[in-house]
């Protein structure tokens, strides 16, 4: 993996990934701003934010995952210069994903009325409900944004969505400052203000990306001859067949972390707030790794479209090594600053102490997390999505959650026990997904 041929793959993957990573980091900037600003408002609001975000993302991640199914066929078609096929998938993707966004909104609103049934403190559930409903309303705009973004990634235009995402992040911070704390003549709305800021920023970001696509000369050839009159059920079916397993695999992982939020709530509000801090840090590093994974998916899909099966295997392995190197640096940084990071979020000393311990465990699973998401990207690029879905189900819900309950409550290890179970689940997923890609890519080569 250190020959000249591999270094070419490293260079191309990194070049493609950097704007995606930057875009991912802009979204983390939104999350960091929400958590730090809400945390400085009061710790009760931070706990409510943790609960609402866990529920929202455990549902919404399915929609995000489904949109990732658009990138491989677009990337494969783009590699061969088939503009019409790219247009066809894009058109069907926009209609499909916006419809999914609307139904997610309705489902989240319905779920919001049952927060009291999750065993959370009444004050936390009451604060979380309207915030969760507003987050649900943003789903429609985000999935339209995702449709255009994944299409642009498929045709290797990764910078344009990044610019919009950074603008959205900056706007979100300004709106948070306005609505959470009551500035510029507005009342202080606390967590509700954070929700209003989020939906406004996401709506305007969606509008901006639409305007960019219909006006930029970079996409002129994809607009030429584009028409909305004819739709084919087989194209919707293909995108669903490819996207739903991706969405489910992301659901299994995210919902496992969401269930860990619920279990933390059973222990106490301090543990839940500390868990949110550690999870926010882990999510930051993960989204960088996810950006590399997305680039790896494009690279393997390109090689599949060109029928360069040997290069396909190399592109996948290159993405894995890039992620491992990055996550190794994260292990070092989190380990050194695990006592300092919680101070950026909350003032309560007890929450800081718990969070600093959880961050040590978060540092331990960085390598596993980076490897498993890189493998998922490589497999997604070659449209191998069913078996990886079963692997994630087994790792997170067959092992992670049951083990978390045993360690956290039966053996009474508490919050640390729940995080140890997440580390074990991620490691199992990383091993099995790596073996899957190596086996699948080898068989593709043999068939060719």
Automatic annotation (TrEMBL):
The record gives the membrane topology as: Multi-pass membrane protein
Keywords of this entry: Antiport, Cell membrane, Ion transport, Membrane, Transmembrane, Transmembrane helix, Transport
The UniProt entry, under InterPro entries, shows: MATE_fam, MATE_MdtK, MdtK-like
Q: Which GO terms describe its biological process?
A: monoatomic ion transport
Where is the major localization of this protein? membrane
A cellular component annotation (GO) from this entry: plasma membrane
Q: What's a single GO MF annotation on this record? A: xenobiotic transmembrane transporter activity
* Membrane-crossing segments per the record: 12-30, 50-74, 94-115, 130-148, 169-186, 192-215, 236-257, 277-298, 318-337, 357-379, 391-411, 417-438
Give its localization: Cell membrane
This protein is called Multidrug-efflux transporter
| Naturally occurring in which organism (per UniProt) | Thermoflexibacter ruber
